[in-house]
Amino acid sequence: MQIVYNIGILVFAYLIGSIPTSVWIGKSFFGIDVREHGSKNAGATNAMRILGWKAGLAVLVVDVLKGWVAVNLIHITNFYIPQTGDFIEFQLLLGIAAILGHIFPVYVGFRGGKGVATLFGLVLAIHPEPTLICIGVFLITLVVTKYVSLSSMIAGFTFPAMVIFVFKTTTPSLVLFSLIIALLLLFTHQKNIERLLRKEEKKALFLMSKRRRELERLKQSA
User: How far apart are the first and last CA of the chain?
Assistant: First the structure.
């Protein structure tokens, strides 16, 4: 009975993660499929680039909530004792199901985003303290470099460092997952890394002054 119930919750978490926020907002309000423009990625960054910062922010918030809600589905079951190893492991499984849903959304042909925002919602729900530190690292890196991809990867590598060395987490599954996060971000950002090395990665124009935005647009279109 517990196995069947757990499978049902995991499927529900996947379906929540599959909500294609950027695709639905783009098609409903702008008549645009963001997967056909810009980086062709169905994530918040590309939505912000193609649809504007307001739509992009809405996509970001919903995508983060997908991970957070999925993890907290564990509270509708009575099979686990909070903060035990089994409890945290099933939380991780729920979050992973949501991330897989975001990357491979069943509603729109299994073409989704990279799962960074949904991953953030997952770790925020499970271990908020190091996650909030990673937000600071992300924002500082973003302001300095203007690269969302680079900021995401650096923040991703900061997370296991915080979990292992600063907060000294002793739950093996959480430690392992924190390391997997760093590797996963490298895997999902392969093209971004290649563009960064070639100095072709696009910067976050919304963080620049109007004059610098125009110069960057001219540079990117050249």
Answer: 61
Q: Average the pLDDT over 207-216 and give the result.
A: 58
Q: Check pLDDT > 60 for residue 145.
A: yes
- CA separation (Å) from 161 to 67, 98, 119, 133, 165? 22, 24, 17, 11, 6
Residue 152: partners with Cβ closer than 8 Å, 6 or more residues away: 116, 138, 185, 189
> What is the pLDDT at residue 204?
76
**Mean pLDDT, range 12-17, rounded to an integer:** 98
Check residue 41 and give its pLDDT.
87
* Sign of the dihedral defined by the CA atoms of residues 13, 18, 19, 21, in that order: positive
Share of the chain above pLDDT 90, in %: 65
Distance in angstroms (rounded) separating the CA atoms of residues 95 and 36:
28
